[in-house]
């Protein structure tokens, strides 16, 4: 039974201080069913500290805290000649992340040679078959064993203690044999910040007797739960976005070892059993066939081992393998990857439907036993697995490879900070890239809208990534525009969608990196190599002061310019944004450039030093100018195009129903892109808050619940007084439905006057035209009796009435994507789109369809209009597509044609003026997983520029 000694003493101590009448908590009644024997059996070296001795309980009896795990693995690394330890990163909360190198004493002493052999075998192009054979013979296989990336899936990390101890202390012959063949790299606890939150919740929710009810707080945990890290990222979606220090350190560490086997120990629903690989379809086509074959071998040996114990298990079922951003990214680099999903058990055990109790120790045992079984399989097949690994690597750089004649091109951009982030990811994954000093003519290119370009020119200073590299599958998986999904899978998805609205997709169907980053790119069916050189990465920060400087300018195309502006504003500097392109001292500046004039800041004695420090902190290049007259008809320095910014005083709503992901990802953006002061407001206490302290309020998407009527009314008053309200994801629904709150509305609420929305759409399009409608009668003096109106063809085109639209919407809404990338067109006249390309890829799922017409404006709309002289005016869903245009939508992933029609022309981002303030709505999470850098820029602009550019400023008298 669980020990209540500690809890009792704590309670006694605590109660003594505030009441004299409390009694001790009772001893629990005995329950033999909940007992489970020690999982560490065998003869162990007494010189190694046993887990029980250090922890005070048998391994798996309770959940070890991150501090206990850290201390113990360090003790073991000191005590054992079979192990050494490496700290590979620190979390945001300052906790260390480690991996242990465990093998025979001889291998551990000889680890540098082993590593250098692995280096040679992973780049085998110059090796003869004989050399490969000889190297394989003398090199142990490597296995990366990683646990509990989700902090509340705790049994994996506890099992890692059993595994490490067993490997370093066991005197069993089998263990010795295993360690002669394998170097075991154990990453015991992948998310210590999440685990710390979870173990703290276990302590806080503990009662005197054990609790086996999965509905109870001990099992469910409380908001924001233990799954995520400090900023609420799901670290098991971060393996190629690498936004977090945990992932960055880990990827660097894993990539040095080319593990032939990678284990990732998780937990799933509490009443389930145990799942392990292999996955079912869809399986990403870039995983080598030999890896899929070996996965089956490992599975059959693991299944036989479970059968021996009569433990229930399954493979496949919900487990698909399309998205490459899980820990299984290692498969694309050559590992066999096995996922474990143990049914979640919290600390006390779980009462199952069959009446039995599954103890926590048993769960830990499943993970430990699986780990040993898989390591044994690796040891037994070491040479064959190694041979396949080398063969695959060799094939990836061969001229006959399927990857041989493909290159990816990132077109030049002035957004240096974003491009740097992209290149950092390439460096982290060991992907090689080049640049071209002169333009290149190429044939057979495809752009992100899927248009085939028979011949095109790649401008100088593009980034070029040939696919023909050792890591070809990973390159293809993250850079190719469209992941292939088998026809059979598409059919099954369609059937499931229609039958009961379920899906065969576990995660997104699109994740293309250049699209998520909002970087223009091309796929070229050619191995580009001539005329390329290695890119020299430059330091970007510099401030050049001139003798008669009148202003300092930072180019607005650069994402880092937003952080630069925010940090200057926080330090009391007067800052302006240039609202259109400018040209000063022969330097061209993009729309949205950040301007600090000497005149505005004539009382500041520290101006130059503040600018220099801020430029350094944000990595931007500052240019001093001495000429205020814009060349030709471009803006002059005192004119209306230099808008004064106002310091954002930022608050974000959180807790009670808010999605920890949306909240956390925005929080992360504020801390990593801006680093300025901001407040997090609890929704529970929101009623009593004084909102006058803020001019920006962010409401992230939510999991459940909504704002009270009182909250909505307080926000309404605050916006009218000049506040910038930013609402993301499904939190838009309540406010779009609230009467008189905003003129942005939802698709399903627009059917009554759909024609007005269609005409508003036409008007928006006409405002961008370079020819004048009704030009032919413009010079007439007599009023023309027959002129063109946008609605004139509607009778003939027969748009749907309300009843038909309702039916159409109900039908098409079944088919919304489970995560796909679609093209949007952005309003290049709005300050919200500073640094944003005209065509912006947006990640969409079953998100709200926003509708807007004046006074609200759609800043970003779904669909890109492309010339097609043959196209007639026609209806798509509720809207008309003008003559001479096609509407392009799908960029990557599965978008059913019905969904494409439903999505077309609705808004992703709207802005509505309200009193002296404004309401800005994003249909989806703009900083999804910290990876959608393209849409995140819109959010950064909204937060930092909103108070100055979108609301009426009061002058402090
Ligand atoms: Zn998990």
Automatic annotation (TrEMBL):
Signal peptide boundaries: 1-22
Matching SUPFAM superfamilies: Class I glutamine amidotransferase-like, Zn-dependent exopeptidases
Residue stretches making up the Peptidase M14 domain: 72-246
A Pfam family that the UniProt record links to this protein: Peptidase_M14
Cofactor: Zn(2+)
InterPro entries for the chain: Class_I_gatase-like (IPR029062), Peptidase_M14 (IPR000834)
Family: Belongs to the peptidase M14 family.
Xref: PANTHER family: PROTEASE FAMILY M14 CARBOXYPEPTIDASE A,B, SLL0236 PROTEIN
Protein name in the entry: M14 family metallopeptidase
Source lineage: Bacteria, Pseudomonadati, Pseudomonadota, Gammaproteobacteria, Alteromonadales
